[in-house]
Write a structure and sequence with these properties.
By secondary structure, the chain is of the alpha+beta class. Helices cover 41% and strands 13% of the residues. Strands 1-2-3-4-6-5 form a six-stranded antiparallel β-sheet. Strands 7-9-10 form a three-stranded antiparallel β-sheet. A two-stranded antiparallel sheet has the order 8-11. The longest helix has 45 residues, at 343-387.
């Protein structure tokens, strides 16, 4: 079912209008029509990934990591739907804004609020570190403050979570060390209006210059009224050079956090299999699809050409069932439930199944002929009984008995 306001994918009804004011782009209100549960649906347009398999693999890996290592300080990834133009990622429904959105609106956080934010962000970072996962880009745009005061890391699929490959406390692929990112994020949080323009300028002109950043911190941040002595020391310890910098696993023992109340135990949601999506309904309602169902020309968002396969002849007829199987497998790969699947084998199996089905139907048709004859004969018998008359003994009279008897003329013998 589709209308001007929403469209449906499986059991999910997704509103077309983007949610504004939360600081997260391409976010849409969604309802599961089976149980009226509310979700947020993130659209990821596959246009940029179509011709770049490495970029697509990175996106896929990020979704898998997010789903597998969910944490009470992440937006909860509930389900993912593989479409033809988009990937639809469903998160638990939350209300609030990113810290970036709040700071752009001019909101200032007091000392107590800052400590709570930092504690919960740190909890998420340590959870990733313990699972050897790297967050490429920690910033205010990716930290969400809910209306009930909870801090969640968001936009994780855009951040690209990576598996750690370098030595301890280092970051792969040349990205800024996560401890430094944490320190920079604190500076943006306490001195947004002045530090952000400064930081952008030095990155453009001189790259990530740690010496200039520390000079700015000493002159402009440490003397702010709401920056306590212990918070100032934390910032300095986070922004030291590599040999003297505090390690991420030791940050929660820093004197800034030491005096705070014990934190809630880290709750890791198990990566249980998401609720089943009605994929058949999804295919039937896939109005954005450019796939020709009568001939395989493209059955993948990655421009996968099956008609050139060695195992499948051109102009192969593909059924809806093959589509259901294909998109189900794509979804399982995205969630990390399986590593990969053979697209050609799916088509081959569906072709064999279709051939078997036709042959079986043909055999059943001839097999059913004697049964149909018997049914017709029985119906005729029934009708004859209903229309027949009974003899004096209560039996059906023979056909000849019911006909009027011919009167034979007597022959007269005469004498001539």
């Amino acid at each position: 079912m589709e209308d001007d306001e929403y469209f449906e994918r499986g059991t999910y009804r997704i509103w077309k209008e983007e949610i504004k004011g939360m600081g997260i782009t391409s976010l849409h209100f969604t309802i599961d029509t089976e149980n009226d549960e509310k979700y947020l649906c993130k659209f990821i347009n596959l246009k940029n990934y179509k011709e770049n398999s490495l970029l697509y693999d990175e996106l896929k890996k990020t979704i898998q990591i997010h789903h597998k290592y969910q944490n009470n300080n992440f937006t909860y990834l509930y389900d993912v739907i593989q479409g033809t133009s988009n990937i639809y990622i469903l998160y638990n429904y939350i209300e609030g804004k990113t810290l970036f959105k709040y700071k752009k609106e001019g909101r200032n956080f007091n000392e107590k609020e800052i400590k709570k934010i930092l504690e919960e962000v740190l909890n998420a970072l340590i959870h990733l570190y313990n699972n050897k996962i790297i967050l490429k880009d920690l910033k205010l745009e990716n930290i969400f403050l809910t209306d009930d005061g909870k801090i969640l890391l968001c936009n994780l699929e855009k951040n690209s979570l990576l598996t750690q490959t370098n030595k301890e406390n280092k970051l792969a692929n040349g990205y800024i060390n996560i401890v430094l990112q944490f320190g920079i994020t604190i500076c943006k949080l306490v001195d947004y209006n002045d530090f952000v323009p400064f930081f952008k300028t030095i990155k453009i002109q001189k790259g990530f210059d740690l010496k200039l950043i520390n000079e700015y911190v000493n002159e402009n941040i440490l003397n702010k009224e709401f920056v306590t002595k212990s918070l100032g020391k934390l910032i300095k310890d986070l922004l030291k050079d590599e040999n003297n910098r505090i390690k991420i696993q030791d940050i929660d023992s820093h004197e800034y956090f030491y005096s705070s109340q014990p934190k809630e135990k880290d709750i890791i949601r198990s990566s249980t299999k998401p609720t089943k999506v009605d994929l058949k309904n999804d295919i039937q309602n896939m109005s954005t699809s450019n796939i020709n169902k009568s001939t395989i020309t493209e059955v993948s968002n990655r421009d996968l050409k099956i008609n050139n396969s060695k195992n499948v002849k051109e102009e192969t007829i593909i059924t809806d069932e093959a589509y259901l199987t294909y998109y189900k497998k794509e979804r399982e790969v995205l969630l990390g439930l399986i590593d990969s699947f053979d697209e050609n084998e799916i088509i081959k199996n569906m072709k064999l199944a279709e051939k078997y089905s036709k042959e079986k139907a043909e055999k059943d048709k001839y097999k059913a002929i004697p049964e149909k004859i018997n049914v017709v004969v029985n119906e005729i018998k029934d009708n004859n009984i209903k229309n027949s008359t009974l003899d004096e003994n209560g039996r059906v009279a023979k056909e000849d008995d019911n006909k009027p008897k011919k009167i034979k003329k007597k022959k007269f013998l005469g004498i001539f």
